[in-house]
Amino acid sequence: MTLRCSRIALSILLSAVAVQFLPMPIAKADDWPEMQGKGRRSAWDEKGILRKFPQTGLDVQWRVPIHAGYSGPAVADGRVFVSDYQKLQSGRVERVVCLDEQTGRILWTYENHQVAYDKFAYNSGPRATPTVDGDRVYVLGGAGDLYCLNVRTGALRWGMNLPYRFHAKIPTWGFAGAPIVFNDLLICPVGGPDDARIVGFNKLTGREVWHALPPTSDIGYSAPILLTAGKTTQLIHWGPGEIVSLNPETGALYWRQPFGGNLACPTPIVDGDRLFVTAFFDGPLMLKLAADRPAAEVLWQGKNHSEINTDGLHSMVSTPSIMDGYIYGVCSYGQFRCLNATTGERIWESLEVVREKARWASAFLVRNRDVYFINNDRGELIIADLSPKGYHELSRTQLIKPTSAGGGSRELGLVNWTIPAYANRHIITRNDEEIIRASLAE
């Protein structure tokens, strides 16, 4: 009996020891294949992400020199895609660069030596984040050059210049609305006459499939999104003067809502059956989406049309976020604010995020489960707990040097207006001098 018990005890002990050496389950990792992540949600759901930065700063795994640009990186299948711009004595060059995600080694570059960068302001680089779809990456350049490239080789599959092809006007601050993929289509804001404000292309060939809506003053800078409401998939685009909903398969108009002037910049955001938009001069607008058909009505709207006397949220570059019935975002002069999503009532504000009250001061919010990672335009990365009770900062670190012209009078002189990629427990971001990858693993 004693010998039997000893054998059982030994068996249990050996099993326990063996369990310690079994491979631990690996938490789900995520790519970042387009602007603001998959689905353009400004959220990523990976577990095992730190909640406090090391005192010495993040572990930067690689740094690679690149040229100027505001556009963020996209990450898919072990590759990083980013675009930049360089002014040379021989001419002006816009590039698409593909790097190995693990090492930063440049795998290929695609160069365009015929870019019209003298025709818009702040002409120091492309704005739109690349969009990756399978074995293709789509890139919209600052002067309206639209490329479809092979992700493995960088070979051009098709390309066009939107102002030339559609007689479109280059927006005041360049093309910025990253194109979006829907089934077999690539849909892009164009701004051309002859009802070509928005165009749907065959994503494999570049052939035009549909065009929709007459142009406004220009195409604006907000990127299109897709949502499902009223039992229907809808393409939403906010341009100067109105928000529109289209059938993404045909370009047919579902509904339109007048709103805002020429500064249409932040991305519309979806919260259940609500759609929220914020404008620098015109403030916030909350729409309620119909449940039984593609339609929308105004739930509430800001009352002030001033960049200074702001009642709600007047964002310039930053796209806000909605969590648990509250809106969080950066107002016209850097005020980080919380609004009640049901009523529009301001709950609180703080200047802690950008540390200065300055015109166009901005920060980009990305939600990771129960907290937010916030990139302010001073090049700092912040982890914060946001609630209607207030702004609670958990950690802050300097991530990258601000190098870009951003207008206004700023304490550091320059800004960093790049939307980073959060992928596979790392952050990848850039300025006008380098692109970096740093670990966020717990």
Give the overall shape.
Answer: globular
* First-to-last CA distance: 48 Å
- What proportion strand? 35-45%
Structural class: mainly beta
What is the CATH architecture assignment of the domain at 45-69 and 318-416 and 418-442? Beta Barrel
Strand order of the largest sheet: 1-32-31-30
The major beta sheet can be summarized as: 4 strands, antiparallel
* Average pLDDT score: 92
Query: Helix amount, in percent?
Result: under 10%
**How many H/I helices?**
2
Radius of gyration: 23 Å
CATH class of the domain at 45-69 and 318-416 and 418-442: Mainly Beta
The total of beta strands comes to 32
**What ranges have pLDDT less than 50 throughout 5 or more consecutive residues?**
1-27
Write a compact overview of the structure shown:
With 442 residues, the chain is mainly β. Helices cover 5% and strands 42% of the residues.
